[in-house]
Design goal:
- By secondary structure, this protein is of the alpha/beta class.
- The protein has a single domain, classed as Zn-dependent exopeptidases (Aminopeptidase), CATH 3.40.630.
- About 35% of the residues lie in helices and about 15% in strands.
- The chain contains ten helices and seven strands.
- It has helices at about 5-10, 55-60, 65, 75-80, 125-130, 150-180, 215-225, 240-245, 280-295, 295-300; strands spanning about 30, 40-45, 85-90, 185-190, 205, 230-235, 255-260.
- It has a seven-stranded mixed beta sheet, with helices on both faces.
- Helix 7 (about 215-225) links the parallel strand 5 (about 205) and strand 6.
- The longest helix has 30 residues, at about 150-180.
- The protein starts with a helix and ends with a helix.
Length: about 300
């Protein structure tokens, strides 16, 4: 997007602080404390707000439709975890361009001019729904592209965005294990208020029904959030995605817990602007990080 188009898009959304894409910036932002004092990594793969020019040029939908795929402002909600000795990793590239919480092999064959490799991945529910590693539909269910893409385009996106993010995450996990004897990854997301299920929880914790995380971590997170006044559910309707599945290895001293926060708690789901509850949720996510850090998890999980 050239500077003029960038300004117009920002003005159309009432945003003066809209981040202008740059091909030289990494596809993530890492915040680290001066001293790592906790075996915690907070990661938000869907909070990116940079929209590459090639995506905007090929999209048949507007920027607002693309933005409905975002976990908007989740990176800001959890940024305070660094003050409690944790590393905080946030995607900067939009989920509509590349979905970092998908297996890189999850490519939708309907999207591409050529036959896609790794046929087994194409049967996944996410791919069938149009929400593979290169999404076919936006957050409001509209088809994103005017044409079919080439596999070369998909492979370049994976190489430029998906792979660097996961290499950084893998390195952070390895460094954390070396420092503390274990690593606890909190995979941070938001959910539409309409997706909360029958009991309408405010927050859903997903540990893949215990397969991705030691139960003591999940229990501590749930107790802390309930004490802060939130309605909390486990694994329903979200048990965890690619990140928790790929990195949650309790027997190898790596624990992964997904957290989904209802967007209605902190933002206007129609305008995508921060709402009055934003400051409270941000402060409470800091308190969650503080509680996890204070629990000396490395002593019980290493």
């Amino acid at each position: 997007m050239d500077p003029v188009d960038h300004r117009r898009a920002a003005q159309a959304l009432g945003r003066d602080d809209w981040p202008e894409p740059s091909p030289h910036e990494p596809p993530f932002m890492l915040i680290e404390p001066l001293h790592r004092t906790a075996p915690l990594i907070f990661a938000s793969p869907h909070s990116g707000r940079r929209y590459p020019a090639e995506l905007l040029a090929e999209a048949r939908v507007g920027l607002m439709s693309l933005r409905r795929s975002e976990d908007a402002y989740v990176d800001e909600l959890f940024a305070g975890a660094a003050a409690h000795g944790a590393a905080v990793l946030s995607a900067t590239i939009a989920r509509a361009f590349v979905d970092l919480n998908r297996n890189a092999a999850d490519l939708d064959p309907e999207m591409f001019e050529e036959h896609t490799p790794r046929r087994g991945a194409q049967t996944s529910a996410h791919v069938q729904a149009g929400l593979g590693a290169i999404p076919r539909v936006s957050g409001d269910g509209q088809s994103i592209y005017r044409r079919k893409l080439s596999l070369c385009e998909a492979e370049r996106r994976i190489a430029d965005v998906h792979r660097p993010y996961h290499e950084m995450l893998s390195n952070l996990i390895a460094e954390t294990q070396a420092l503390f004897g274990c690593a606890v990854l909190i995979d941070c997301h938001s959910m539409p208020s309409s997706a909360r299920g029958a009991h309408a929880p405010d927050i859903v914790l997903g540990d893949r029904f215990g397969a991705a995380c030691h139960p003591s971590v999940t229990a501590l997170a749930e107790a802390t959030l309930r004490r802060l006044g939130y309605r909390v559910a486990r694994n329903t309707p979200f048990a965890g995605g690619h990140t928790t599945q790929a990195y949650g290895r309790p027997t190898q001293r790596t624990h992964a817990l997904q957290i989904e926060i209802s967007r209605a708690l902190y933002m206007d789901e129609h305008t995508l602007e921060r709402a009055r509850g934003f400051d409270r949720v941000r402060a409470d996510m800091g308190r969650l990080a503080e509680a996890l850090a204070a629990a000396a998890l490395h002593k019980s999980l290493a």
